[in-house]
Amino acid sequence: MKRLPLALALSAVLLPSVSRADDAGLRAVQLRAPSPLASYKAGEVIVKFQTTASQSHEERMLRDAGGLRARQAPYGGHYVVSLDAGVAVEDAVARFRSMPEVEYAEPNAVFHAAFNPNDNLYRFQWNLELIGAPRSWDIQKGKTDVAIAVVDTGIAYEDFGVYRRAPDWGNRAFLQGHDFVNGDDHANDDDNHGTHVASTIGEATDNGEGVAGLAFDCALMPVKVLDSNGLGFLSDVAAGIDYAINFTQNGTHPVKVINMSLGSNAPSETLRRAVERAEAAGVVVVAASGNDGESRVDYPAAFPTVIGVGAVDQRRIKTPYSNWGPELDLVAPGGDFSRDDNNDGDPDMILQQTFSHNTAVREGRYDDFGYFYFEGTSQAAPHVAAAAAMLISQGITSPSAVRKALYDSAQDLGAGGRDDRYGFGLVRPAEALKGLGFNH
Amino acid sequence: MKTLVRSLLLASVVGSAATSAAAQGLVIDGVAGYQDLTRSRNSAKAIFDGKSGGLTYGGGLGFELGNGLFVSAWFRNFSKDGERVFVENPGGPVFRLGHPLNLKVQPLQATVGYRFASGSAVSPYIGGGGGVTRVEESSTVGGVTDKSRQTKGSFHALVGVVIGRGSLSFGAEAMYLSAKDTAGFGGVSAVYDENDIGGFSAVGKVRFRFGH
C-alpha cells in the first residue's frame, strides 16, 4: 500500500536547554489600574492642587469638600484625603473637581494583581504575555472536564518502557490516548515535538518550576499519528481525529478541542470529512498554517471549519516562515530564531518542556528533559487550541461560536479587517472570555 | 414620534373644548410596575436569562393647570441583574458565561397631558413628552468591574387613569418610551441590531394632590 507522507509543520529549531536554577522562586507581580469607574476604596479620595494654591487655602478646600484628614505624598504632591463619615467618594470627587484650584481629583481606585504564575522560567515566555495570558487566567484557567487532544508525535506523559513522563506535568491526568503509528494504547512521544506542543497548552503552572501552559487546568489526550521523524500518514491523522471525537469517559465525550500542529499541501477528501465529523461532534479543530513562508495554507488548517493559525514574532509581525492565504484565520506567537526584541538575551522563540531529540536519536533515551526553544506555526497553533478550550470551559460550547468569539476578539493586525497574512489577527483569549454585555 | 404628536394634538384640542373646570394644583406621585425593554427585546432576553423586562419604580411632580391640562416631570429607575453572554448570530443560541452584569435604564422626562373628566371619581388621561434617558451598564469579569454610562434624548407617550377624588388617589398608567441610539453599538444589542432601549411599561400609581 502506498503511504502518502504528511509533511509535518516542524521547522522546530532546537536549542540547548536553558537551565536557570538561580531563577527559582522569581515572582513578578503586575499591578494594573482597573477601568476608570471600577471599584475604589470607601472614604478616601486623591486630590492634587494647582501649585499656586497656598497651604492654608488647600486646607480650607480639603475641609470644604468633606475631608477629615489628609496626607501628602512625598512625590507628586497629591493628597490622600480621608473623608468625613457619610461623605460619599463620588460627591467628594465632584466637589473637588468643581474647585478651580484643583488640578485633579479621583477615587482611590482598587488595583488588581493579575494571576502571574511563579514558574521560575515564566519570564522568558513573552508569548504568553503577548496574548494577555495573565488577564485570561483571572477569568478562566480551563476545566478538567474539557480535554484537548494533541494529534501529533505523542506526548511524554507516562513512564512506560524506555519512555518517561516529562517532569513539569505536575499531577496532571491524561486521558487514554492511542498510538496509530505503532498500533498500541501508549501514545508516547519519540520525537519531542508533541510534548512541546502539549506543554504550551497545559504544562503545570504556578508550581514554582519550569514554564507555564495556557489552559493548564484542562485535560490532555495524547494521540500519536507522526513518527520519530515527525512524519505520518493521512490515514493515521484521520484515524486520530476520529479516535479523539469518539472517545467516551463516564458516558461523555470529554475531547472538545483537537490541536494539529501538522499539515500537508494535499487537500485530502478523507481529511476534510474527518474534520467535518469533528465539527458535527461539537469539537473545535485547530491546525498550523505551515512553515514554508508561502502564500498557501496547509491542510487541515485550510479547511473552513478548522481554525488555521499562522505565527507572529514578539513585535506582532508575521514571521518569515509562516504560511498565509485566504484560509488563514488567526495568528499567535510562533517565535523567530533570529530576533531578540524583548532583549532577554534569548532568541524570541517559544519555551516549553520537552526532551532532547538528539539524545533520543543517538542514545535511544527519552528522559533527557529540559526547556527548549522552538519556533514555528506548530508552536502558534496550541495557543489558539488552549484559548478555544478556555472558551468552552467558560460556557461557549459550539465550534462555530468558539470560532466567532476568537475571531471577533482578535487584535487586528496588518491591513484593516481580516487579511490573508494575519487572518482576523492575534488571538486574545481574555477578550474572548469576556463575552458580550448589553452594549459592550 | 407620530404617536407623541397625535397625543399632544388630541390633548390640546380636547383641552380647549373641555367644559370641566377643575382647580389648579400641585401633584406628586409615585409609581411601581413592570418595564419591558420591548425595543431591545432580544438583547434583554439574552442577558436576563430569557426575560425582557422587570421592576421599575419612580416618582414625579406635576401641576394641573385647571382646564384638564397638566404638566409633569418624572423619573423612573429600572435596574436588573443578568450575566454576560456570547451570541454568534441573531438566530443562534445564547451561551451564558457567568460574569455578573447589571443594567440600569433611568428616564427623566417631562409630560404634557390632558385629564378627561377632571374631578370625577374615574378620570382617564393621556400625555406625551420627552427628556433624557440614562443607561448604565456594569459587569465584573475576572475581578475587574467595568462600567459605562450614557445619556440620550428620548420621548414617550402614555395613557392612564386616576381613581379617586380626594387628595390621595390611585391610578394605573401604560407608557411607551423610545430612546434611540442607547444601544446597538456593541455587545449583544449590536448582534441583534437593536438600537433603542425603550419599550412599554405598566405601573400602578399613588398620587397626592395639594390644595384640593
Keywords:
heterodimer; A: 440 residues; alpha/beta; Rossmann fold; Alpha-Beta Plaits; 2 domains; 7-stranded parallel sheet; 4-stranded antiparallel sheet; 11 helices; elongated; disordered N terminus; B: 212 residues; mainly beta; Porin; 8-stranded antiparallel barrel; 8 strands
Task: Write the topology of this structure.
The complex is a heterodimer of chains A (440) and B (212).
Chain A: E1 5-7, E2 31-32, E3 40-49, H1 55-64, E4 67-72, E5 79-83, H2 89-98, E6 102-109, E7 112-113, H3 126-130, H4 133-139, E8 147-152, E9 178-179, H5 193-202, E10 219-224, E11 231-233, H6 234-246, E12 255-260, H7 269-280, E13 284-288, E14 306-312, E15 330-333, E16 350-355, H8 357-363, E17 369-374, H9 377-394, H10 399-409, H11 429-434
Parallel strand pairs in A: 8-10, 8-12, 9-10, 12-13, 13-14, 14-15
Antiparallel strand pairs in A: 1-11, 2-7, 3-5, 3-6, 4-5, 16-17
Helix pairs in contact in A: 5-9, 6-7, 9-10
Chain B: H1 2-17, E1 25-36, H2 41-47, E2 53-64, E3 69-87, E4 94-115, E5 122-141, E6 144-163, E7 168-178, H3 187-191, E8 199-209
CATH architecture of chain B: Beta Barrel
Which structural class matches the secondary elements of chain A?
alpha/beta
Nearest-integer average pLDDT of chain B: 90
What is the alpha-carbon Rg of chain A in Å?
25 Å
Architecture overview:
The complex is a heterodimer of chains A (440) and B (212). Chain A contains eleven helices and 17 strands. Chain A has two domains: 5-26 and 115-434, Peptidase S8/S53 domain (Rossmann fold, 3-Layer(aba) Sandwich); 41-109, 2-Layer Sandwich (Alpha-Beta Plaits). Chain A has helices at residues 55-64, 89-98, 126-130, 133-139, 193-202, 234-246, 269-280, 357-363, 377-394, 399-409, 429-434; strands at 5-7, 31-32, 40-49, 67-72, 79-83, 102-109, 112-113, 147-152, 178-179, 219-224, 231-233, 255-260, 284-288, 306-312, 330-333, 350-355, 369-374. Chain A has a seven-stranded parallel sheet with strand order 9-10-8-12-13-14-15, sandwiched between helices. Chain A starts with a strand and ends in a 6-residue tail after the last helix. Chain B has a single domain (2-209), classed as Beta Barrel (Porin). Chain B has three helices and eight strands; from the N terminus they run αβαββββββαβ. An eight-stranded antiparallel β-barrel of chain B has the order 1-2-3-4-5-6-7-8. The interface between A and B is medium-sized, with 28 and 41 residues.
